Each structure stands twice: as C-alpha cells, then as structure tokens.
Amino acid sequence: MNWTIEAVCTGTARPFNGAETSAIVKRPREGAVQVLADGLAPDEQADRRVHGGPEMALHLYPLDHHAFWREQIGDSPLLAEPGAFGSNLAVSGLTEDMVHIGDRFRLGSKTSGALIEVSQPRQPCWKIEHRFSHKGMVAAIIRTGRCGWYFRVIEAGEVAAGDSLERVAAGAAEWSVARVFRALVAGTATPDELAQLADLAPLSPKLREKAAAKRG
After folding, report:
1. Counting beta carbons within 10 angstroms of the beta carbon of residue 205, is it exposed (0 to 12), middle (13 to 18) or buried (19 or more)?
2. Model-level pTM?
3. According to the model, what pLDDT value does residue 52 have?
C-alpha cells in the first residue's frame, strides 16, 4: 500500500521552558531532504538521551489524530501545523493499529528514496503539554494509544513533500505499534507478552530491555 508524504518537517533546538531546550517544533521543508542513519539532515533533538539516534531516526505522528485533539483541547492553531507533535513525516490514513514493528517502507522515489523500518512507539512526555499549554494530554495519549512511532533507516536516501510512503515488507504481524504501546507504556503486558517483546528482534533494544526487566 502507498500513502502520500504531505510534509517533511525538521527543527532546531530552541529555548523551550526556562533552561530547557527542545526541537519539538518541526517546520515543513521545501524540496528534497536527505534521510541519513540518524534521521533527516538537518534535524535536531535537544536531549539525545531520550530522542534521536538510529533507533528513533524519524518520527511519524498521524495527521488523523489532529481531529481528536481539536475535540479535546479546542482548535489550537498549532494543530494546523503538520509537525505539531514533533513529527518529521506528515501522513494521513495511517495509524498505530495499521503498522507493525519491523514493517519496512520505501520513503521517497524508488530510485533515490530511503528504506525505513518501524522500530518502536513513541512514549509521550511533558513537552507535548508544554507546547500546547494543556495538561492531561500525556494521560490522554496513554489512554487512547495515539502515540505515533519511530523508524530506523535501513538505506539512506532523500524525500520531499508529495513523495510516497510504500510498505514493501511486513514485520511482526502480531505486534502492531498500538499493541506494543499498550503493553509497555500503558503497562498492560502479561508475562507471556513481556517474554515475546524481549525477544522481538526488530523492536528497539531499549524497549526489549524494558520488557526483559519487567519480566524479571
């Protein structure tokens, strides 16, 4: 299946909350953008301990969720921005229950595009609430599973708005991003699920370690 990249968004680390900095503000880019092992070039993450790196090279937060947030917090002007939640790729019609850990997608053209792989769901943090000036958004994400997800880059390339996102290989069919999020972030995992996740090779090492630690 194919989806259309409606915008490619990048950001720089800027003052965000007192001494804190953040690059959650992502703006659309014109023309082709390089997709490298650590993500788009240029793109920044302020706190590299919890953002960025090869396992979180690209973030996709579904545009479909913006309508939900309008109902929850009102018609914030931020919701008109394709990168409002720190998303690098703006895509409609693709949500957490439709993609699986290890799914591979061709991003961009077949000749110069990148090959990317779903690595993990995104765990929400306080910066989302600070950006939108609304408390309770993190709790709503955990409750509803509207988390978005990350890709690792298998083959570098380039991408521009209007290009396609094509699923070219299926990953772990039983482990959608939505299910992994419920299990490890919402905390619903059974011992058997924790064992499966600890051994799920395409899942990011950090979350495999988390599953193993919870399993004991």
Report:
1. exposed
2. 0.93
3. 67
User: Crossing angle of helices 191-198/177-184, nearest 10°?
Assistant: 120
Write down the pLDDT at residue 156: 97
Chain segment 169-214, per-residue pLDDT in tens: 999 999 999 999 999 999 999 999 999 999 999 999 999 999 999 9
Return the CATH number at 82: 2.40.33.20
* 183: nearest Cα among 93, 120, 104: 120
C-alpha distance from residue 116 to each of 152, 154, 195 (Å): 6, 5, 26
Whether 213 maps to a domain, the answer reads no
The Cα 155–Cα 168 span in angstroms is 13
CA 22/CA 17 separation, integer angstroms: 8
Range of the domain at 168: 2-174
Tell me whether residue 53 is in a domain.
yes
HSE, side-chain direction, 13 A CA sphere, residue 161? 14
- Is residue 182 in a domain? no
Tens digit of pLDDT for each residue in 112-128? 999 999 999 999 999 99
Could you tell me which of 45, 11, 42, 1 has the C-alpha nearest to residue 164? 1
The reply to whether 180 falls in a domain is no
The Cβ of residue 30 has, within 10 Å, a number of other Cβ atoms equal to 8
**Number of domains comprising the chain:** 1
H-helix or E-strand spanning residue 4: strand 2-4
CB 49 within 8 A of CB 58: no
